[in-house]
Amino acid sequence: MSIEEIKQNVFKEIGNCKNFQELENIRVKYLGRKGKLTEILKSLKDLPIEERKKIGPKANQLKNQIQVALEEKKDFLINNPEVKPLDFTLPGKKIPQGHLHPFTLLEKQIEEIFANLGFEIVESNEIETEYYNFDALNIPADHPARDMWDTFWLKNSSAKNDSLKNQGKYLLRTHTSPVQIHYMETHQPPFRIVSPGKVYRYEAIDASHDIQFHQLECLMVDENISFTNFKFIVLSFFQQLFSKKTEVSFRPSYFPFVEPGVEIDISCPRCHQKGCSLCKNTGWLEIAGAGMVHPKVFEWVNYNPKFVKGFAFGIGLERIAMIKYNIPDIRLFNSGDLRFIKQF
Ligand code: FA5
Q: 190: cis peptide before it, omega within 30°?
């Protein structure tokens, strides 16, 4: 559009305009950042000096004229009783903002609690070899305990490297416990770590089981670590996560990589052991597998089990989020349903 064409149109448009919105649209059309007159003004710098001298003053003059006409029209609209005046006290339009997924919020809170307890946060692989997921955790190939974890094996994948660690097939880790081996292979005690991450199980999906979920592995190793240290950390963690009233209880259980092995239960944070639908009237919720690190596991990483002791536990993070936020079905986390996500 040339300067002449703009001149012909813009004043007509201002004359015909009936409300503030239309007037603003006209301003944007000609004088906005990408407005038609603005484009001409911007292009002046690329013109030969003679042409610039001709067009420049015309364009600037027109800009001033349009500004004056817009102001006049605005005054007219303000003083015209038929036009609804601008109400500057109206609340502004709410611009929708993103926010963190409830699960991410929980993960951050859990990491903060452990960081305050002196734990380092460590990341690890989601694709593992049989060695890390099973063998080094004291679960050899013919061990019936392998059936505890229904596994996604990776197609056509058997590790090429000759070292024992890389023999066998690749798989999607069924729990975060392999991080224990990776970490101990490359570090010496004392240490305390937590490692959150995704795990995968070839299982039927229902309200409390998914095929992909998150666990958090905790491992503390030193010369004199006892079950009492273990209990203290677990209790501190759950009391900070839920409330001071939370109690923990340990039930004997079996995991090949710990001895003794336990299942950790916490008192129901909703009913405080009075009995409710969440805890199915038992007053307790099963929350993690745990135990004192098995001497055989220490041997796999060349630690001497006579001199080092440790505890480990693995918590299901979705289950915790479900308890904390009262979420009835694990499938909601990955549903992408905005009605669900917007509640947090
Ligand atoms: C384990 O996976 C052990 N690695 C835990 C462990 C670590 C024991 C260290 C000893 C020492 P388990 O299979 O019980 O244990 O799983 C741990 C938690 O993961 C469960 O308590 C539960 O909260 C969660 N979980 C298990 N299966 C599923 C599933 N299909 N969907 C969602 N959460 C699950």
A: yes
Task: Quote the CA–CA distance of 164 and 135 in Å, as a whole number.
Answer: 10
Mutate to test the pocket of ligand 1, among 216, 218, 255 (most ligand atoms within 8 A of CB): 255
* pLDDT tens column, 75-124: 888 887 677 666 788 888 888 888 888 888 899 999 999 999 999 999 99
Ligand 1 atom at minimum distance from 149 CA: 13
258 catalytic, yes or no?
Answer: yes
- For 60, the token pair is 């600037």
What is the pLDDT averaged over residues 330-341? Answer: 89
248, 223, 253, 249: which is closest to 238 by C-alpha? 248
Predicted confidence at residue 93, as pLDDT, reads 86
Q: Which range has the top average pLDDT, 1-5, 148-152, 206-210, 218-222?
A: 218-222
- Of 133, 176, 177, the residue with max ligand 1 atoms within 8 A of its CB, to mutate for a pocket test, comes to 177
Q: Is the CB of 40 under 6 A from ligand 1?
A: no
Question: pTM of this prediction?
Answer: 0.74
pLDDT tens for 51-70 read 889 899 999 999 999 999 99
Catalytic choice (59, 122, 149, 194): 149
- Angle between the 49-79 and 36-43 helix axes, to the nearest 10 degrees? 150
* Structure token digits, residue 200: 């995968």
pLDDT digits (tens, 9 = 90+) for 191-218: 999 999 999 999 999 988 999 999 999 9
> Of the residues 179, 297, 312, 321, which is catalytic?
312
Ligand 1 touching residue 269 (CB < 6 A) = no
Q: What are the C-alpha distances in Å from 175 to residues 152, 266, 290?
A: 12, 21, 12
201 is catalytic: yes
28 catalytic, yes or no? no
